Amino acid sequence: MKPLLAIEGLKVYYPVKGGVLQRPVAWVKAVDDVTLSIDQGDALGLVGESGCGKTTLVNGLLLLEKLTAGRILFDGHDLAQLSKGELRRLRRSVQVVFQDPFWSLNPRWLVRDIVGEPLRVHEHLGREDLVSAVRALLELVGMNGDDIYKYPHEFSGGLRQRIAIARALALKPRLVVLDEPTSAIDVMSQHQILLMLAELKDRLGLTYILVSHDLSVVRYLANKIAVMYLGQLAEWGPVQGVFANPAHPYTQALFSAVPDPKRMGVDALISPAGEVPSALNPPSGCRFHTRCPEAMDVCRRERPAASPVGLGHFVACWLHSDPVPSTEGHLEAVSRLS
Ligand SMILES: Nc1ncnc2c1ncn2[C@@H]1O[C@H](COP(=O)(O)OP(=O)(O)OP(=O)(O)O)[C@@H](O)[C@H]1O
Ligand code: SF4
Ligand SMILES: [Mg+2]
Fold first, then answer.
1. Residue 23 sits in a domain of what CATH number?
2. Are 190 and 332 members of one domain?
């Protein structure tokens, strides 16, 4: 089965401009060589400390950021090879819901116009059809059809997030990107929204990418997880396998204080000790070596390749990699593994 989305060697660098001509003098390597695929029906949780590149990665795959390198294939189509028209059609299949819905909803528009805008622009619906389509969308997200005549400020944070989800679903997308969808709302509403997102996923056959700081949210909604550190993937695989057996020292540190899995709405990611290095000048070899309690010489020199440690479960760490031939690190890695 071909994946719904495949990202190959994706890099997104932000220029740091300087001098009179404001030319790039350095690059923030926000996403630096990420390869990942997502099957239809998957919900992939993307986790990592603040600034590790989660939002840049999703913006890159939504083509909201210029790609420095890499390929994105959606349903087998290389986005770089598509004509503008094909790309526009395909873009409808991928929608995004941001963290704080208040800023992504136009405060002067009625809910009818906010949720209906994608339908008006892409489907050219007449007024009556538009109103009934928007009513149906609101009911789909558990709201009252009559709410279409209200403004965003008349709703709580949780209901505004439902409006944002209704808008994202208007064009019947296949992939929905949820960037911290519940972190700006109260715990009760978070719980209800997560239940709703799980139900919508099954009912509409959706695929999710879920960016979250909250491991309990990921554990609840996602079936796959990818752990990012300084622009690269440290570990990825099925949620159950990665939670039961985190193999990367960074993942082990992040997961070291996961509270009761039944409790949602708790920011459970634990940052390991030490400063996060700058993405302007990331460490050589394994980027985590400056904070890793297990670091060996080879870690400072060579970037570890991804190695399987379980079914569909991969880790980029020398503790789990074939050692580098004829180096000091070789012997070190062998002794660590034995
Ligand atoms: N427009 C930009 N210009 C320059 N650097 C940027 C820009 N946007 C993000 N960055 C930098 O890129 C890196 C990745 O940022 P990004 O926002 O993707 O992280 P994140 O994982 O989403 O963080 P958070 O969890 O706080 O949302 C950071 O070092 C950030 O400072
Ligand atoms: S490769 Fe080395 S530094 Fe990186 S996580 Fe593994 S042991 Fe630690
Ligand atoms: Mg972010």
1. 3.40.50.300
2. yes
The reply to whether 117 and 222 lie within a common domain is: no
Of 243, 171, 165, 242, which is closest to residue 208 (Cα–Cα)? Answer: 165
pLDDT of residue 268: 56
> 275-298 pLDDT, tens per residue?
889 999 999 999 999 999 999 999
**Interatomic CA distance for residues 172 and 164, integer angstroms:** 14
Ligand 1 atom closest to the Cα of residue 213 is 25
Opening angle at CA 282, ends 281 and 283, nearest 5: 120
Same-domain status, 288 and 223: yes
CB atoms within 10 A of CB 327: 14
- Compute, in angstroms, the gap from residue 180 CA to the centroid of ligand 1: 14
Which residue lies with its CA nearest to atom 29 of ligand 1?
Answer: 51
236 Cα: distance to centroid of ligand 3 (angstroms): 19
Confirm if 210 and 222 have CB atoms less than 8 A apart.
yes
